[in-house]
Write a structure and sequence with these properties.
Elements (H helix, E strand, L loop, with lengths): L1 E4 L3 E6 L5 E6 L1 H11 L4 E8 L2 H12 L7 E4 L4 E7 L5 E6 L20 E5 L8 H15 L2 E5 L10 H11 L5 E5 H8 L7 H13 L4 E5 L5 E4 L5 E4 L12 H15 L5 H5 L3 H19 L9 H5 L2
Parallel strand pairs: 1-4, 1-8, 2-6, 4-5, 8-9, 9-10, 10-11
Antiparallel strand pairs: 2-3, 6-7, 11-12, 12-13
Helix pairs in contact: 1-7, 5-6, 7-9
Length: 312
């Protein structure tokens, strides 16, 4: 079983008519939905509001086949994110997070022995007191031997002390089995200029992999996906051509699709990830890229179901 831990929220997405339409979202939530829709046995660890949005978030998890035994409920409101879209479909976010439910998650204690992988990321590792709770789960599950997967999915506007956050991120790497990061987030985390060349990014990624992860998957936007493998190779796959509606949830879909692929190929362990060769990584990244392309072809974070991916 896989557990995805982190926030769930509501994206308010602009429509063609100029309105804001609510879409269920949040990086970890989207990753859990993606993995569930692709047939992986996945559960979600978070705290959701008992408000109407919280009910809708739970309903969508159930519809995707995601288990909710680890979902806590509380009276605090649901986090909101107002989304702005660029001409290329890229998204920027403004968040309303004060006193919201996902920040109040409590430590669930050791996860069931059947849990082989736990995925973390996004706002849940920034906003206290929840960030410290998820951090403890990360350390404990890594110590237990589960495959820990991290997608920092940086939202810089919510990080009040970038230097402290970067130090904290560095402290996680020794406990991470698989790191997935966008090239833009890698630049920010390393303190590189936004236009730093890809080779500089790869140098940073090599240092991160040496600090702990068995492999590092790098999302490159319109240039596809790459991975720095356990053997030190850089494997690339090109993007899947698609008419982009927006990119909301694309990276989260990559995360969920990778988790589903690793489950389907009996590779949900740090050692299995470290031992994957070029052929297997090419297949895994191709699977994740195809899933993300479908998400980009429709509005909001709507990852594909397994049957849709099989038809491509």
């Amino acid at each position: 079983m896989i557990v995805v831990a982190g926030e769930a929220l509501v994206d308010l997405v602009p429509t063609a008519e100029g309105h804001l339409a609510p879409r269920m979202g949040g990086g970890p939530y989207n990753a859990a939905v993606a993995a569930g829709r692709l047939g992986a046995p996945v559960g979600f660890l978070s705290r959701l509001s008992t408000d109407l949005f919280g009910d809708r978030l739970v309903e969508r998890l159930h519809a995707a086949g995601v288990g909710t035994d680890l979902v806590q409920r509380g009276p605090e409101p649901t986090t909101l994110a107002v989304v702005g879209l660029g001409e290329d479909g890229s998204a920027r976010y403004s968040f309303y997070v004060e006193g919201t439910a996902d920040r109040r998650v409590t430590d669930p204690g050791p996860l069931p022995a059947a849990v082989r992988a736990v995925s973390f990321g996004t706002l849940s590792l920034v906003l206290e007191p929840g960030a410290s709770t998820y951090e403890r789960v990360l350390w404990r599950e890594a110590e237990r031997g589960a495959l820990t997967v991290l997608d920092p999915n940086v939202r810089a506007g919510l990080i009040r002390d970038p230097s402290a956050y970067r130090d904290r991120y560095d402290s996680w790497l020794a406990h991470v089995g698989l790191l997935k990061v966008s090239a833009d987030d890698a630049r920010w985390l390393a303190g590189l200029p936004g236009d730093a060349p890809e080779e500089d990014v790869l140098d940073v990624v090599r240092d991160w992999r040496d600090a702990g992860p068995a492999a590092v998957v790098l999302t490159l936007g319109g240039d596809g996906l790459a991975v720095l493998t356990g053997a030190g190779e850089v494997i690339r796959v090109p993007p899947v051509p698609v008419a982009v509606v927006d990119t909301i949830g694309a990276g989260d879909t990559v995360q969920g699709a990778l988790l589903a692929w690793l489950h389907d190929h009996d590779a949900l362990s740090t050692e299995a990830v470290r031992g994957m060769d070029a052929a297997r990584w090419t297949e895994a990244l191709g699977h994740a890229g195809a899933a993300a392309a479908i998400t980009c072809s429709r509005a909001g974070a709507e990852p594909p179901f397994k049957r849709e991916l099989e038809m491509t």
